[in-house]
Write a structure and sequence with these properties.
By secondary structure, this protein is an alpha/beta fold. It contains 15 helices and 9 strands. Bound molecules: coproporphyrinogen I (1CP).
Length: 375
C-alpha cells in the first residue's frame, strides 16, 4: 500500500492501491500538483466533458442535463469521452455544481442556453428554514458513477469537484444566472442571519459532495468559486471565506500534504488569490485575466497564517484563443508555460471553461503541443 497518502482514504483508493494498473500516485497530474517534475507536462481543460464534443451531444439526446448526471453509466461515459479523444492527463467528473441541490430535493433544472434555474428563488428566512436535510445517502448515484469511471481510467486520475458555497448560493438567491449577483450581495449585509444559515447549508452540501467523490476514488478535488470575483476583498474575507473553509472541513482529513490535491478556482479573483489559498488549497487556479508570474509574485508576497507562500498554479490559457489562428494560440501557450515556470509547480489548463463552440480537434492538437514541450 502506498504509505505516502492519508490512511483515511480506502485501501483500494487509486492514490493508495499497490495495483499499478489502477494507481494514480505516479501520474503526471498528481506529480504536477505536488510540485514534482512529471514525465510529461500535465494538462486538462475545465468543461472538457460536454458541449464541445459531438459524441456528448449525441449521447445526451432526449435526456436532460441533470438527469444525465444522475444516471451513473451515462455520467461515467461522458466523463471518459474527452480523455479518449484528447489524451488529457485527468478526467473531470461530469456533474454540476447544482447536483447536491437536486439530490436534496430542491427544484432546479439546467435550462438549455441559460444555465441553472430554480423553481423558486431562496430569499426569505422561511425559504431557508424549509431547505431539505443533506444526507450522505443521497450521494449514492455519484458514488456509483465515480466508481465506474475510476475502474475505466486506471492510472489516469479523476478530479472531483463542487461549487463553493458563494457561487451555489448566488444561484439559489437569484434563482438563475446573473451578472452582478446583487441578490446575494444584498443579503449578506441586510440579513446576516439568513446569509449565515444559507451559506452553512450550501457549505454542508458542497463539503459532502466532495467527500463522496474522493472516498469513491477521485484523486484530486477542485472547488469552483466561479463568481467570487464579484466580491470585494472585505466581502470575501468576512462573508464568504469562512463558509468555503466550512465546506473544506468535510474533507480536511483527506487533503493537505498527504491527501488529495485541492485546487481552488474562481474568475476575476486576482485580488483574493492569497485568501483562496488560505482556505487550505494546495493548488490555486488562475483565470486568464492575470499572468501566472504575477499570480505567483502576489502569492509569494503574502504568506498565509501557516507561513505558506507560493503554491502550485493551474491555468491559464485564454479560451478566446482556441478560436484564433494556430500560430497565435501556440505563441500564447508557450508564454503561459514560461510564466508558470516561476511557480513551485504548474498544471496547464484554460483560464475558464471550454466554450461550447470550440473545435475539438484544436484541443487535441493543443494537448499534443503541451506534451511535446519538455521541462
Ligand atoms: O446541456 C448542457 O450540456 C449544459 C452545459 C453544462 C455542462 C456541460 C452545464 C450547465 N453544466 C455542465 C457540466 C459541468 N458544470 C461540469 C462538468 C464537466 C466538465 O467540466 O468537463 C462542471 C465542472 C461544471 C461546473 C459549473 N457549473 C460551474 C463552475 C465552473 C464554471 O464554468 O465557472 C458553474 C458556474 C456551473 C453552472 C452552470 N451549469 C451549466 C451552465 C451553463 C452553468 C453556468 C451558467 C451561468 O452563466 O451562470
Amino acid at each position: 500500500m502506498n504509505q505516502e497518502f492519508s490512511p483515511v482514504l480506502p485501501a483500494n483508493h487509486p492514490l493508495r492501491t499497490e495495483d499499478s494498473a489502477q494507481s494514480t500516485a505516479q501520474s503526471a497530474l498528481i506529480k504536477g500538483y505536488r510540485g514534482e517534475v512529471p514525465d510529461r507536462r500535465p494538462v486538462w481543460f475545465m468543461r472538457q466533458a460536454g458541449r464541445s464534443l459531438p459524441e456528448y451531444r449525441k449521447l445526451r439526446e432526449g435526456t436532460t442535463m441533470l438527469d444525465s448526471c444522475l444516471i451513473p453509466e451515462m455520467a461515467s461515459e461522458i466523463t471518459l469521452q474527452p480523455v479518449r479523444r484528447h489524451d488529457v492527463d485527468a478526467a473531470i467528473f461530469f456533474s454540476d455544481i447544482v447536483i447536491p441541490l437536486k439530490l436534496a430535493g430542491v427544484g432546479v433544472e439546467i435550462q438549455p442556453g441559460v444555465g441553472p434555474v430554480l423553481d423558486a428563488p431562496i430569499r426569505t428566512p422561511q425559504d431557508i428554514a424549509n431547505l431539505p436535510e443533506i444526507t450522505d445517502e443521497m450521494f449514492e448515484p455519484i458514488t456509483e458513477a465515480v466508481k465506474l469511471t475510476v475502474a475505466e481510467l486506471g492510472p489516469r486520475p479523476l478530479i472531483g469537484f463542487a461549487g463553493a458555497p458563494y457561487t451555489v448560493a448566488a444561484y439559489m438567491v437569484e434563482g438563475r444566472p446573473s451578472r452582478d449577483h446583487l441578490g446575494p450581495r444584498t443579503m449578506m449585509y441586510n440579513d446576516p442571519e439568513s446569509w449565515d444559515r444559507l451559506m452553512s447549508w450550501t457549505a454542508e452540501a458542497s463539503g459532502r459532495f466532495l467527500r463522496a467523490q474522493i472516498m469513491a476514488g477521485a484523486s484530486a478535488a477542485q472547488l469552483f468559486d466561479s463568481w467570487a470575483g464579484s466580491l470585494s476583498r472585505t466581502n470575501y474575507l468576512d462573508k464568504v471565506m469562512p463558509y468555503s473553509q466550512q465546506a473544506l472541513e468535510h474533507i480536511e482529513d483527506l487533503t493537505g500534504d498527504n491527501g488529495v490535491p485541492l485546487i481552488h478556482f474562481g474568475t476575476g479573483t486576482g485580488e483574493i488569490l492569497d485568501l483562496m489559498r488560505d482556505t487550505g488549497a494546495t493548488v490555486v487556479g488562475v483565470d486568464y485575466r492575470l499572468r501566472l508570474d504575477e499570480a505567483n509574485r502576489r502569492l509569494g508576497n503574502t504568506p498565509g497564517p501557516d507561513g505558506r507562500t507560493n503554491v502550485v498554479l493551474q491555468g491559464n490559457i485564454d479560451p478566446a484563443l482556441l478560436d484564433a489562428d494556430w500560430d497565435v494560440l501556440e505563441t500564447h501557450v508557450r508564454e503561459v508555460i514560461a510564466q508558470g515556470a516561476k511557480a513551485p509547480g504548474h498544471v496547464l489548463n484554460l483560464g475558464h471553461g471550454v466554450p461550447p463552440t470550440t473545435d475539438p480537434t484544436v484541443l487535441t492538437r493543443l494537448v499534443e503541443l503541451i506534451h511535446s514541450i519538455d521541462y
